[in-house]
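Page 47, continued from p. 46.
Same chain as before, 289 aa.
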Amino acid sequence: MARILGVGNVTLDIVNVIDNYPHEDQEVRALSQHINRGGNTGNTLAVLNQLGHDCAWAGTLADERDAELIRADLHEHRIDLSAVHTVKHGKVPTSYISLSRLSGSRTIVHYRDLPEYQASDFARIDLGLFDWLHVEGRNIDQIKLMLQRARAEQPNLICSLEVEKARDGIEQLFPLVDMLMFSRDYVLRKGWHDPGSFLQVLRDQTLLAGATCTWGDRGAYALSRNGEILHEPAFKPKTVVDTLGAGDVFNAGLIDQLVRGHSLDMALIEASRLAGRKCGVYGLKNLVD
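Result:
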C-alpha cells in the first residue's frame, strides 16, 4: 500500500441518463438521474482507494449543503480530508452531465464559484508522509509553487501532473514532475492529431519526465524515460455504457502500477484494461475484483 496525495478538483455531478443526445431546442425525458461526487482528482483517488492505497485530498470546499454529499463519499472511500480548505461562501463546483445510453458519451456543463487551492494551504501539508503526489494542472502559478516546494523538500517524492486542458503557461510545470498524463483534448489543441508524433516531439526536446496520452478508442500511448514510445490498444467492453471518468480511472491504474514498481509498459496495459472495464459499467464503484 502506498500513501498518495492528490491536489485538484472535486465536484458535485448531476447525471441525466438519456437515450441519445438531443438537438438544440429539443426537449427529452431523462431515463434516470444520479447525483454523485465527481471531479478528476476525486475520481482518481477513489479508484486508488479501491486498488488498496491510502489516499488524501488537498482541495477547496464551500461551507454549504452540497459539500456534505462530497465529504460523505470521500469518507466512504477513506480519503483523508485534513488538508482541505473550506471557505464560508461560494458553491461547490457542479457538473450537469447528459449521458447518452446510445453511445456512452457524456456532455458536461460545468459551474464553478469557488477559489482554487492555494500554495499557502499546501504549505501546511507534511509531504514526508507520502509516496506519490498527483496534481491537476489548474491554477498554474500556485501549482508551480507547490511542485517547487515538493522538489526542494522531498526530492524522492514521485510527482505526476494531469494535463487535461491547454491552460496558459502549463508547460512550465512539465520539468517539475516525473510523469505527465496528457488528454487528447490538450494534444489536439496544440495542433497535433497523432499522439505518437506528439510524444516524439517531447522526446526530441529531451523531456526528462515520462509521459502518457489517452486517445479514446485508439487506446493509450506512453513515452518512457529512455525515449521509447509505447502503445496499448483500447480495452473495449461488450457494450460501452458510461465513459464519464474513464480518463481519471486510467490515471489511477497507471499510478497504482508505477508506485508498485512495475514497468511503464505493464502500467500502460493495466491502466487501459481498468479504464475499459469502467466504460462498461455505470459509475466508479466495484471496478476492482
